[in-house]
Amino acid sequence: MVKPVAAFVLFIAVLFVYVIPVRAQSEDDLAQQDVKNRINRIIDTAMGIAHDRAADFNARIATINEARPLELANFDSSHIANNVTRVIDFSNYLAGFRRTDDSLGRALEDSLFILHEEIPQTQDRVTLEAFQDSYATDLKAFDSYVETLGTLYSEVLDVLLFVQQSSYEIHNDQLQFRSQKDVAEYRKLMKPIDATSTALKKASEESRKATALANQKIAEINGGKIPATPASHKTKKP
User: Fold this and answer.
1) Distance (Å, whole) CA 211 – CA 137
2) Fewer CB within 10 Å, N side or C side of the chain?
3) Region for 167 from its dihedrals, namely left if φ exceeds 0, alpha if ψ lies in -120 to 50, beta otherwise
């Protein structure tokens, strides 16, 4: 069973908090506050998108988990036909999810790049770069997880299509094919599923680690513990 995730790009769960002194604001103060507001708007937008996509993703995970496509109890012709459709739909969803993630990631990167170019070498630039690095790390790890999940269900689909076209019976909770050739092919198709399941578990753990590190980075930003020395100049990816 595939576990649901929390918010996609999970680390952006903490808002930046800025304390504004109660005094007359100069033009520099207003400009600096405008930068902070723009950073916050970018983060708020990313959080909103993350929340909505996480809810949809988890709903899809729940649906495919309920289908239990490889359980012998669902190996009658009707269940197999339905699950073939479900797995195809889910695989297409994952592929589209990754394409959308790539598009959203590039759009956010463009926004961050433009803002980065307008910010002088100040703590605000350090804050922006810390957020950008954390976002990129978390996104990459989660994309790897989704890619592995797609591989797993592609392999599941291969098994279902093979069983759908084979002659078999179920006796004493055992799948029994009528030919030894089919037995060998079934075992061949099932074998990579075990390896991919192990890889999926590892990808999930790596994604959670990336999220935890990103959360820590954001907490450091909010606590004012990010070093005040600006990071190296970021260049826009092609």
Assistant:
1) 8
2) C
3) beta
Cβ–Cβ < 8 Å for 189, 90? no
- Torsion over CA: 19, 21, 25, 27 (sign): negative
Q: What secondary structure, in 3-state letters, does 68-88 show?
A: CCCCHHHCCHHHHHHHHHHHH
d(CA 214, CA 50): 15
d(CA 163, CA 186): 8
User: Tell me, what's the pLDDT at 15?
Assistant: 31
Least confident of 88-97, 128-137, 165-174, 188-197: 128-137
> What count of Cα atoms within 13 Å lies in the side-chain half-sphere of residue 88?
8
Backbone phi and psi for residue 100, each to the nearest 5 degrees, phi listed first? -65, -40
Which residues, 6 or more positions from 154, have their beta carbon under 8 angstroms from its beta carbon? 91
User: Residue 78: pLDDT above 90?
Assistant: yes
Radius of gyration of the chain (CA): 24
pLDDT above 80 (res 118): no
- Please count the other Cβ atoms lying within 10 Å of the Cβ belonging to residue 103: 10
